[in-house]
Amino acid sequence: MSFYFQKGSNLTNKENNKLLLYWLCQLTGKKVPAGVAFFNEPQGDYRLKVDVMPEDKVFYLKATSMYEGKVLYRIEAAVRKEGRVIHRAEIGTGYSNANEGYPIYMDIGPFSRLLVMEQLV
């Protein structure tokens, strides 16, 4: 399922535009840089390059539905066998405000802090 947002929305035409990733401590509000993301328009998802992961490990963020004013997301990791991607496994979930688009808050597997994606200002 892909979501296409109206022109003027923060989520349109992001191909080749870099987005910031950072870890957010929910107790202190402290932000720690975490990497970058890019929107892949043909696939309708975001490609996340997280600094703490090996160079060849890529996460994908894809909108799955809307519920009560929030866009819900699935975070996936590519599963490789003999160097080829054989499928994507779900490793987390995320959400954003449907009206604003960014930031997108993500809860990924073993990490205790939220991964947050937002536009460069």
What is this entry, summarized?
This protein is mainly beta and 121 residues long. Helices cover 0% and strands 57% of the residues.
Approximate strand percentage = over 45%
N-to-C series of helices and strands: EEEEEEEE
Roughly what is the average pLDDT, rounded to an integer? Answer: 82
Name the overall outline. globular
Q: What is the helix fraction of residues, given as a range?
A: under 10%
Low-confidence stretches: 1-15
What does this structure look like?
This protein has an eight-stranded antiparallel beta barrel. It has 121 residues and is mostly beta strands. The chain has strands spanning 18-24, 31-40, 45-50, 59-67, 70-81, 84-97, 104-108, 114-119. It is globular. The chain has no helices and eight strands.
Question: Which key features would you list for this structure?
Answer:
mainly beta; 121 residues; single chain; globular; eight-stranded antiparallel β-barrel; disordered N terminus
Topology:
Layout: E1 18-24, E2 31-40, E3 45-50, E4 59-67, E5 70-81, E6 84-97, E7 104-108, E8 114-119
Antiparallel strand pairs: 1-2, 1-8, 2-3, 3-4, 4-5, 5-6, 6-7, 7-8
